[in-house]
Design a protein that fits this description.
The structure holds 4 protein chains of 4 kinds. By secondary structure, chain A is an alpha+beta fold. In chain C, helix 7 packs across helix 8 (198-227). The chains are: A alpha+beta, B mainly alpha, C mainly alpha, D alpha/beta. At the A-C interface, helix 4, helix 7, helix 8 and helix 15 of A face helix 2, helix 5, helix 7, helix 11 and helix 12 of C.
């Protein structure tokens, strides 16, 4: 079963960065970068070698390489270059753009491109090519890119071969952060005019690798671009990729991925099964990345059903030991997240909010009594006016909620049962999820979901009050609070990050107080790399794995 | 006129003829099925624990005296879950096979008895149905109706119906031409009387064994659906669901995958073995 | 020598008909027409079945392009509806689809934007290798066990039939997991990531073959034991033929007949098994395509896969008929 | 390796001498605790035929198989001596047995349709013993197969070796089987019921073939239940019953002056022109056969009348085949009309038309002068009680789930006087059982557990239950041993005397037909070739086919 990691994007605002927990050798190899351009230098593991093929055990196979999925961005990072890249601490560094200036009114960005860069189809990178890309995004060529800039982007103009100007409708501070994501990889102009099908199978950029062959259902083979000149400022070495090929295998089964790593068939793997975490840490270089944005938390249906009553929602939050359950279900690997609106890796995160609603069955019972759910039926569930306290908890099984997540929900279900909730778990199939079968107020009472984004501006996307004229279908709690809406809007237009964070903290408090959502755990991404492979790293905007600096040692 | 001596059909001889050829396999199979039936009817007789009671202090314990099959990732006793899962798993097996047989009997008898155009139309319909293997049908149905026990029963039932329908039709054709059918007609019995009193019971007799095979196979199919993430909703201890959730632990906590697997195999094997014993007996009796 | 002529025995029953060619042509035509009917009907059923999935296809396409699970405004849905022709009446969409089938056009994938023929075409060969390999391996396994154990000493026979009953009861997926862990992870004989390499095909094929071999074996064993009691087997023995030769030369050919029929039926089980095996071993094939397409509501791809499975079924059953007649020429006369 | 030409020459020398070939002394065979052959001894001689005769369960087939070391699994064989031309057969390994079988001893089983591998070419089957005993090359074996086929009188042997057994007619097939048995010209031929299930004309051909082998100096052991077949070939006869030899001696003595009562009973039980109008089994109080007094048939009132019946079947190849061609007959009250013919003659189809189980393509059947075949099924149903039927295989005509009592009461309910209550049904069922020589204790028996004769008695009781005017008997005794056959035939005639019922009696057995029938219809390929009073047809056959049939009929009296 494929486990889709849905790409979650931020349409609005702000820079800043996620915490990345780099472990073991990865940090050590940072020093071995510079001297490696020509012959293989020596590194901690042994003699560095040029060439070789990295077998990367990835998870889900996307249907198309030009789209808005995170899984697509992971691949695109290695074949496309973006204008800028994000470094530690959220700073923006040059990539295809050697430098840039921003006008005083924050409405005009002028980029100066690196000279001598060529796409892999031989055409040169020039300002017009980048302008074409902006127009392509705006047209919807990449849906995620489109919605990330759409309300702000006005036009892009090539000034000369190496200079272009991007004009905005209104100030948009997160623009550069957004542009750092692989959704904004620059495609060759020839590539843009091809059919959707060709664009899907083989997007042409100026990256360190290009698509050699895509054996659907099995693997995507990337081959090194020998003429690569446009590495980003954050690169660990100067020059084309050191390995010859990256064999991007699609293995949906985590057990099989880990087995491939242990048998040496794969040199790196995506998403270590939590049960194998300890052994993986002992034998391999393990990197974990906590995704910024909305963590995995339960949307509570405030429009229909038992959760229309805030006391019942609060009782639900008090009624289970979520922290202990997350600890057990994820074997202590994935952190509990008590803040339902933004993850601990998100700038503007309010840690105080996260500690609300500790496990307190007495409090939960008291709240339910107050709410009038005083009866108990034969099965021990609470009733009110003869109606059982039923909660339909639907979850996108296999995609958003993995097997471990399902175990977590089952543990919670038993605890909720103790205080009188009859929670029915409803696994959604992917077809149902996509069809929107669980998107209406009558289709569920609670539903867990996450939404990756580099910024707390994600709050606006999720919690913006829905109006007739401008419905917000992303507000899956159907929670329309105009006060909350205006607090978030204030945050978005604040002049400084400090001011913005205050507003965002206020918003987080409102959501938590109202229990419009209930926090569960952080969305994380992890990779494990074999001991003889070095300098595989995750970029900062959304944890895309980077292979151009990687090399083997004997 | 000489009275012919009564043959050795005396009580003793008949007893010897009727005597069940007791084989070890049959005995073991019967025992397993017996335990299974207890698990279905009164699971509490076999375990004092609850299948959903979690115990975060005792997760992933290997098999021991107090937890014969070990515990799972939520600290639930796996043995208890397997015992309680019997009802749903067997329900899927019986339900799917029952549904399949129901469809098969209608189509098989209509085709076999009516012949001509009706038979041709049914044969075509069956051919189209054959193009939908069980799993393909299940995928489609689950996409339409969402995963549930009912969907699994319907999917596996409809998926295996064409095979049964062909068997029923074959049986109807074979029995239709049997001498005793002709004999009943020659005695002056009406068409429906002959069908009801002779054709139906005799055509269905050899299918008793097929039905028991089908029950085992349906359980096995249901576990395949669970593997594709299309099984019944948690925390149901349905066996296929147990297998699916155990997969992640195959290298670290083997019992979560192996124990339910062994139980599924043993049950399918026992039901099948009993079915075959029954088949051999029925065939022996018919000869 | 008696002179009573053989003329008294009518042999007219096998005289060929007056116009053999016309009859053969007619028979072939009937087969072709019914095959086409089966294919179109199967694709049509799938087409309509998928329209029953809750939610609109445009919503599914938008959600799946954007990785969301939400509702969309009419304005957002309109261009998608137009692009894929969902704004046309259902009947018209259906007629377009069926019309396309006859031109060899199975439509365009909603997710890969490629012709369905291409999406499936790429994956067909690995799937065929898997299923045909599975069937062949199942036959080899079943035959070996039968020849070695059927109608031997009681213990050996019991061992053989227990093995068959046991393997026939194994869930495909469980066999796969156990084989993978034992032979790829613990004892590293076969690769974990097999792909389509010959070595990597071994475990998937075995996973499919082992349960099927149990089934075939059970059917063959009954028949084999029955055949060994036939008078012509005694005849062969009275000519001085040894036991092994009797089994191989005489009994085998008779006892494979029901298993050949079952092989046609087993196709469904093989395809179902392939869906599981391909997903388990990360092997390309139409099983994986199918699961993905059903998940993403890629209607044309799902219908296309069903069409291919139906076609394989039709062809396989023609082959079964052919092989059956080759093994038992008596049927040619009938 | 024996060159066939030499062999023939050698045989010519010894053919008349009667040199002993096989000695068997005190052979005992047991399966588990049950001894099925209880001490039998005999000697076969070169150029002679020894016949082992007995009914089912007599142990004759087991004896035959023991001679080639194929007694079967679970058997225990003991003997004082089994010796074939100086070779001790009691102590042979399986390997050396394989060398003996086919080369020293040839074996012929009944009906080649099941005794030859239907999926292999006739040529391969014939050449198989040659190949197994490493005789010649592939090409020479093929030559030899053709030669053998031609020597057993098969026309176009080059064509036939490339055909499969099912493509050959019954006679050719049986000859091919014999050809394969004599391929290596073994000294001893064991023939186990070689002519059972064959039509009488083909049976004659096969016997001739065996006689020819005997004349060439081969020794034959003929296993048969049929004394008249034996009479044609045997020089010496052993009569077995229950594993014991009851009589043993020269053929003419055993067959014509039997010393043992059982042999005599067996001989008496054979229906033929001589037994017409007599009981085949003497009633207990009488020592000798008693002449029956037959009621004169009511000549003027035909019960069942067939007029120009024709039945055309369309085969799967869309070719029409006329199976019954312009058949007319009339059956009068209290009379037996025999229909005789070989397989494929259309006699069973005629019976089914008479029963209105099958509609004639043209022509009609009248019952008591009223329309019968022309009635609609619903009109006919209430009339069905007037015609009963007895089948060849009674077991298959009973619903396998039903006990005897239910079978008979079910039939009673279809009659004109359906029983009013359960107890009266039971009483009448018991009366019927007693009428056919069974008793109350058979009521609850499953037919499967009854003997063949008892099953046929139940079938007769069922046929009688609705009190029909006519009973169609379709080969009612063909599957029965001769003594049982005699009992059933006696029962049928007794019932006719008692109840005045008419029989349409169908059989391939000329003896049975002659014994039973008042008048006879001889059918061949769907047509009636001859008809008339039984004695007339048998004594003065007009049609060449009838004549041929009668010539081929094996008789006890040397022809």
């Amino acid at each position: 079963m494929s486990r889709t990691r849905f790409a979650r994007l931020a349409a609005a605002a702000i820079t800043a960065l996620s915490v990345s927990a780099l472990l073991a050798a990865c940090s050590a190899s940072g020093g071995a970068v510079a001297g490696l351009a020509g012959s293989g230098g020596s590194a901690s593991g042994g003699t560095a070698a040029k060439g070789g093929t990295i077998v990367y055990a990835a998870e889900q196979e996307p249907p198309c390489l030009s789209g808005g999925w995170l899984q697509e961005a992971y691949i695109d990072r290695n074949i496309l270059d973006s204008l800028v890249t994000e470094a530690s601490g959220g700073s923006i560094k040059p990539w295809l753009a050697a430098s840039w200036t921003v006008s005083k009114d924050d409405l005009t960005y002028t980029f100066t491109l690196k000279a001598g860069v060529k796409f892999t189809d031989g055409t040169p990178l020039n300002a017009q090519a980048v302008v074409d890309n902006f127009n392509y995004w705006e047209k919807g060529g990449n849906s995620t890119a489109q919605v990330s800039i759409d309300p702000y982007f006005k036009k892009a103009v090539a000034l000369d071969a190496t200079h272009l100007e991007v004009e905005l409708n209104k100030p948009y501070l997160p623009l550069l952060t957004m542009l750092a994501q692989a959704y904004f990889g620059i495609l060759s102009p020839a590539s843009l005019t091809r059919s959707t099908e060709a664009q899907c199978d083989d997007p042409i950029g100026s990256g360190a690798f290009e698509v050699k062959q895509w054996i659907h259902g099995q693997e995507l083979i990337l081959v090194k671009n020998p003429n690569y000149t446009s590495w980003p400022a954050t690169a660990l070495h100067q020059g084309p990729a050191i390995v010859n090929e990256v064999d991007w295998k699609f293995l949906s089964d985590p057990v099989e991925r880990y087995a491939a790593l242990t048998t040496g068939e794969a040199n790196a793997m995506y998403d270590i099964p939590t049960v194998d975490w300890t052994s993986a840490k002992a034998s391999y270089q393990v990197t974990r990345y906590i995704t910024p944005g909305k963590p995995v938390s339960l949307y509570m249906n405030t429009e229909n059903g038992p959760f229309t009553d805030v006391q019942v929602r609060q009782a639900f939050a008090y009624g289970s030991d979520r922290k202990a359950a997350v600890q057990t279900a994820f074997h202590g690997v994935i952190p509990y997240e008590g803040n339902p609106s933004v993850s601990q890796a998100t700038p503007g995160y309010d840690a105080a909010v996260a500690s609300a609603y500790p496990y307190d069955p007495a409090k939960a019972n008291q709240l339910l009594n107050q709410a009038g759910w005083t009866g108990r039926d034969a099965a021990g569930y609470r009733t009110k006016n003869g109606k059982e306290l039923d909660v339909k908890l639907a979850y996108p099984a296999g995609s958003v909620i993995t097997d471990e997540g399902a175990t977590l929900l089952q543990i919670l279900q038993q605890q909720w049962k103790q205080i009188g909730f009859n929670v029915t778990l409803v696994p959604e199939t992917q077809a149902e999820t996509f069809s929107g079968a669980y998107s209406t107020p009558t289709s569920y009472d609670a539903q867990p979901w996450y939404w990756t984004s580099p910024s707390a501006a994600i709050l606006w996307i999720v919690w913006r009050p829905s109006t007739k004229a401008d419905p917000n279908y992303s507000n899956s709690s159907f929670y329309n609070n105009t006060q909350l809406g205006s607090v978030i809007a204030d945050g978005n237009t604040a002049a400084t990050t400090g001011a913005a964070d205050k507003y965002y903290a206020q918003a987080q408090q409102i959501i938590q107080n109202q229990a419009a959502a209930v926090g569960l755990y952080d969305q994380t991404m992890s990779i494990a790399v074999a001991g003889n492979l070095h300098d595989v790293w995750l970029e900062k905007s959304q944890g895309e794995p980077v292979f151009e600096d990687a090399y083997f040692t004997q | 006129m000489t009275a012919v001596a009564v043959p050795r059909a005396g009580a003793l001889a008949r007893l010897r003829e009727l005597r069940f050829r007791v084989q070890l396999g049959t005995v073991i199979s019967s025992l397993i099925v017996l335990v299974l039936l207890v698990a279905v009817v009164a699971p509490a007789w076999l375990t004092h624990r609850s299948p959903t009671a979690i115990d975060l202090e005792h997760t992933l314990l290997p098999p021991s005296l107090s937890h014969p099959f070990g515990t799972d990732d939520a600290g639930r006793d796996l043995y208890t879950r397997v015992v309680y899962g019997a009802r749903e798993s067997l329900g899927i097996g019986l339900g799917a096979t029952g549904l399949a047989m129901g469809i098969a009997i209608i189509l098989g008898f209509a085709g076999g008895l009516a012949g001509g155009l009706v038979d041709t139309v049914i044969a075509r319909v069956l051919e189209v149905a054959f193009a939908f293997p069980v799993l393909l049908l299940a995928l489609l149905l689950i996409a339409i109706r969402g995963p549930s026990v009912t969907t699994e029963i319907v999917a596996v039932g409809i998926g295996s119906a064409p095979g049964y329908a062909r068997m029923v039709r074959g049986q109807v054709l074979a029995v239709r031409n049997a001498d005793y059918i002709t004999a009943a007609t020659a005695l002056g019995h009406g068409r429906w009387a002959v069908i009801g009193r002779h054709l139906f019971p005799n055509a269905m007799r050899p299918l008793v064994a097929v039905i028991t095979l089908g029950i085992g196979q349906s359980i096995v199919w249901a576990s395949g659906l669970a593997f594709l993430g299309l099984g019944v909703a948690p925390p149901s201890p349905e066996w296929g669901a147990l297998l699916d959730s155990g997969r992640m632990y195959i290298t670290t906590s083997w019992w979560l995958e192996i124990m339910p697997g062994v139980v599924i195999v043993l049950v399918a094997l026992s039901v099948t073995t009993l079915g075959r014993t029954l088949q051999h007996r029925l065939e022996g009796a018919a000869r | 020598m008696s002179t009573v002529g053989e003329a008294t025995v009518p042999v007219a029953s096998r005289r060929p008909s007056a116009r053999p060619h016309a009859r053969t042509a007619r028979r072939i035509l009937v087969k072709v027409v019914s095959a086409v009917f089966v294919l179109v009907a199967a694709a049509s059923v799938t087409f309509f079945a998928q329209l029953l999935v809750p939610g609109s296809r445009a919503t599914a396409i938008l959600n799946q392009q954007n990785g969301r699970a939400q509702q969309w405004t009419a304005a957002q849905l309109a261009p998608v509806n137009h692009e894929f022709g969902f704004d046309k009446p259902i009947l018209l969409q259906y007629l377009d689809y069926v019309g396309g089938l006859f031109r060899g056009n199975l439509g365009t994938s909603y997710t890969q934007y490629k012709p369905v023929t291409q999406v499936i075409g790429d994956e067909l060969v690995p799937s065929l290798v898997l299923t045909v390999g599975g069937l062949a391996a199942a036959w080899v396994l079943a035959l070996a066990v039968i020849l070695l154990t059927a109608k031997r000493r009681r213990f050996i026979s019991a061992l053989g039939s227990t093995w068959e009953a046991l393997t026939a009861s194994l869930p495909t997926y469980w066999v796969g997991v156990v084989l993978l862990v034992v032979f790829a992870v613990e004892i590293r004989i076969f690769p974990v990531i097999g792909g389509t390499s010959p070595l990597g095909t071994v475990l998937p094929v075995l996973t499919l073959a082992i349960p099927l071999a149990g089934f075939l074996g059970q059917v063959m064993r009954d028949e084999f034991e029955r055949v060994l009691d036939q008078p012509f087997i005694t005849t062969a023995r009275t000519r001085g033929m040894g036991d092994t030769a009797v089994r191989l030369v005489h009994a085998l050919r008779h006892s494979v007949l029901p298993a050949i029929t079952l092989s046609g039926w087993a196709l469904g089980a093989l395809v179902s098994g392939a869906v599981i095996v391909e997903n388990l071993f990360g092997r390309p094939g139409i099983g994986q395509v199918l699961v993905t397409a059903v998940n993403t509501r890629d209607v044309p791809v799902v219908s296309g896969v069903v069409l291919v499975v139906a076609a394989v079924y039709v062809v396989a059953n023609l082959l079964v008929d052919l092989v059956y007649v080759l093994v038992d020429p008596r049927l040619r006369a009938a | 390796m024996t060159a066939p030409a030499e062999a023939t020459q050698e045989n010519a020398n010894v053919s008349a001498t009667g040199t002993p070939l096989l000695h068997v002394e005190n052979l005992r065979v047991a399966f588990g605790d049950t001894e099925v052959v209880k001490g039998i001894s005999f000697t076969t001689r070169v150029g002679r035929c020894l016949a082992v005769v007995g009914e089912s369960g007599s142990g004759k087939s087991v004896t035959a198989r023991t001679l080639v070391g194929l007694t079967g699994p679970g058997s225990r064989v003991r003997s004082d001596r089994i010796e074939l031309a100086g070779l001790d057969l009691t102590r042979q390994s399986e390997r050396s047995w394989q060398a003996i079988r086919g080369r020293e001893i040839g074996f012929i089983l009944q009906d080649a349709l099941v005794s030859l591998d239907q999926l292999r070419l006739v040529g391969d089957e014939i050449a198989e013993p040659l190949k197994l005993h490493k005789w010649g090359t592939r090409a020479s074996r093929r030559e030899r197969a053709i030669e053998l086929l031609s020597s057993v009188g098969v026309p176009e042997p080059e064509v036939k070796i490339r055909q499969r057994p099912y493509e050959l007619s019954g006679g050719l097939r049986q000859r091919a089987l014999i050809a394969s048995a004599i391929a290596l010209d073994p000294k001893l031929l064991v023939a186990d019921e070689p002519t059972t299930a064959l039509d009488v004309t083909i049976q004659a051909q096969v016997l001739d073939l065996l006689a020819e082998s005997k004349a060439r100096g081969r020794s034959i052991i003929l296993i048969s239940h049929d004394l008249s077949v034996v009479a044609r070939l045997a020089d010496e006869v052993i009569v077995m019953r229950g594993g014991e030899v009851v009589e043993q001696g020269p053929a003419h003595q055993v067959l014509h002056q039997p010393r043992h009562e059982y042999t005599r009973a067996l001989l008496d039980a054979i229906p033929s022109e001589h037994t017409r109008g007599t009981r085949l089994v003497p009633a207990a109080e009488h020592e000798s056969p008693v002449r029956r007094t037959r009621k004169p048939a009511d000549r003027d009132a035909p019960v069942l009348e067939a007029r120009h019946l024709t039945k055309v079947f369309r085969g799967p190849d869309k070719v029409d085949r006329t199976v019954v061609d312009d058949v007319s007959f009339s059956l009068r009250a209290g009379e037996t009309l025999g229909i005789v013919g070989e397989s494929g003659s259309g006699k069973t189809t005629t019976a089914r038309i008479a029963l209105a189980l099958l509609a004639p393509t043209s022509g009609e059947v009248l019952l008591r002068g009223q329309a019968w075949s022309a009635l609609s099924p619903s009109q006919r149903r209430p009339q069905r009680k007037r015609i009963g039927v007895i089948y060849q295989d009674p077991l298959s005509s009973f619903d396998p789930r039903w006990a005897v009592g239910r079978i008979i009461t079910d039939a009673l309910r279809t009659g004109s006087r359906p029983p009013s209550s359960k107890s009266s049904a039971r009483a009448r069922a018991i009366r019927l059982l007693e009428q056919v020589g069974l008793s109350e204790q058979h009521l609850d028996a499953a037919p499967l557990r009854l003997s063949g004769g008892q099953r046929q008695r139940v079938a007769i009781a069922r046929a009688l239950a609705p009190e029909p005017e006519v009973i169609v008997c379709d080969e009612p005794v063909s599957a029965l041993d001769v003594s049982i056959q005699a009992q059933v035939l006696d029962l049928l005639t007794d019932l006719q005397d008692e109840l005045g019922v008419s029989y349409l009696f169908i059989s391939h057995d000329l003896g049975v037909i002659h014994h039973m029938s008042d008048r006879i219809l001889v059918m061949k390929e769907g047509r009636v070739v001859e008809s008339g009073p039984a004695d007339e047809v048998f004594d003065r056959p007009q049609d060449p086919y009838t004549q041929r049939l009668l010539t081929a009929l094996p008789r006890l009296a040397p022809a």
